[in-house]
Amino acid sequence: MASEGLRLNSRLRIIVLGYIVRGPLGGMAWHHLQYVLGLAHLGHDVYFLEDSDDYPSCYDPQRHVTDTDPSYGLGFAERAFDRIGMPGRWAYYDAHEQRWLGPCAEQTASLCETAELLINVSGINPLRSWFIQIPHRVLVDTDPVFTQIRHLTDSKARAQANKHTCFFSFGENVSGVDGQIPDDGFAWRATRQPIVLEAWPRTPPVPQGSYTTVMQWDSYKSILYKGWQFGMKSASFKSFLDLPGKTPVTLELALGNEHAPRKLLQAEGWEIRNPLELSSSLDTYQRYLQGSKAEFSVAKQGYVVSRSAWFSERSACYLATGRPVIVQDTGFSDNIETGRGLFAFKSQNQAITAIEAVEANYSDHCVAARELARQYFDAGKVLTRLIEMVFAKGA
Question: Which of 54, 59, 201, 204 has its CA at 20 to 30 Å from residue 289's CA atom?
Fold first, then answer.
């Protein structure tokens, strides 16, 4: 145990696997970059690597296609890593061409040989042979209940998960008695999105702004498992469709998915924005959140019915910039303080009451929001705890 203690206090070489070249959008990129930047701020030797996987997975928002061409994403990644001050710390493996690209392309073999810890954010990178040699391999599940069901129903997904040595989930009730997340046999432990507070400074309140969010209507198909239906945000939204007519504030959706019922939503009073414009870079995404009065959002219906206690990385960013957050309760209110800066609702009446509370004391709720981000999502705390748990268990 003494040697483990020394390692906890030492500078580790850490590989973060994520989704930036293939998902070149501001919100997605911030989600993964805060692991890289947060670990670097803790003094670790951090590199970001990404794998194309073996199917067409590169999204190009300019061409509106998903194929095997990483050109757009490579340019986006270069700008993103320059933006956070880590320009030489990433590489991309193009499995279709069987070659590494990016500034660390020639170093990847030695980096993997000498790394002590790998963190696979969202589990969307396959663990090829060069990653398996890293002794501690963490899977971070950011899509609780859906991840566990995939492991129980998809042998390939389970085989990929088995290549990891330690398991963390944004579903904080993943091993609790209060949730309905199926047991997939992996020893999950709770974690949260790390927020690098220096990169997300508190900005002045926007009293005349809109209540906004950035969301996908349907990310993928809902799942029926053992009599339980686990759906998307579209299923959750039904109970709140007519909310704009019951509150004086402006409610705005930066809404993805081409099949979303935009005309119906607009008829009910929702303002609709194009999320691609708002997420074209790290800065445009950040400015959109900063320019909002507060966040209002539903959660995936599957997160709600399972009482997963999932909390959005996007909502954590709203809190950090000093924006009150009003979001559908997934069970997170059992673990995170609500009522000041953050409100959890289960019904439309509760949502209206939360909006009224924010409107009545807006400035104080903005201050409270930033403090909640510091208390619950500060990257230094979140990532230190994750590393301590990995090495304490000898994973």
Answer: 59
